[in-house]
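Hey,
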Amino acid sequence: MDECFMLKGLRLLSVFLIAKVFRATGCPYGCNCSQFSINCTGAHLQQFPLDIPFATKQLLFCNNNITGLPVHLNYLGGLVHLDLSNNSLTEISHSSLVNMQRLVYLDLSRNRLRQLTHLSFSYLANLVVLKVSGNKELTFVDSRALSANTKLQDLDLSGNGLTFIDVNLLSALTHLRSVRLAGNPWACNCNSENLISWIRRNRRIIPDVAEITCAFPDSLQGVLVTELADRLFPLCHRKREFKLSEVLYFCLIGPGLFSASIALNLTFSLLIVLYKRIKKKDMKHYRKLRRAISFKYSKRPNVITQQINTKAFTNGGATIGVQLSR
């Protein structure tokens, strides 16, 4: 009876807490709300409010100091528009976006993101607009970061700290209509050849293509990426020219080392053969000596017996002579 009462009490308490935390109606403190939209722009928030209505479709939380995404965002399954620009987010917790299957617009600009992993947007299958610009600490984007976002049309990666991204990240987005890449310290080398070629081929969908420049190496700093495409291809695919030092190595040092290794192997082989011969000679001498010793000691019992018999015979003859004299 007591257990049933306790269970009922816990259920009532959990229902009360859920109802209190996630109200179906109302507006968070310091925010402006309409029927399906909540605008908390510049409300000096450090975390998400808990009393966001279930029916919310648009959340505007820009210009605050939010540092992380809470798990309770998953209760907003009908959310379509989410603006988190100009906050202090350092990472994207995919567990907070699991239930946002209807999200179409996501703005993460001007935060402190460091990387985009293959799980960051893996549940946002209907995402159309993604803005991740102005994250100066963002230096890594996984090649699979947008593999689940095949409907993406507008992508903004400008103003970050990217030196390289895998071209497959972009080429897989077949519905892409606009992509911004300027303001990153791009490394222009043979590893970036495919990316640079893709930028040149798709310049019509890159509004800031005239501002995409190289930052590395120093000799190419400030050079437009589109101008580098023709120059980079012959540099990366030209036939290798051997230097004089390499020629000398292959013609002189190489054969010398080869000959030295052969001489060393022959010397080592001769030493092994000589060692075996000396060892064999010692064994032969040892066997000969052992046979001589064994032969000597195998005759010793007969010699001793003969000496005893001789001595006995001598003593016996002397005794017989004494008796005859008497």
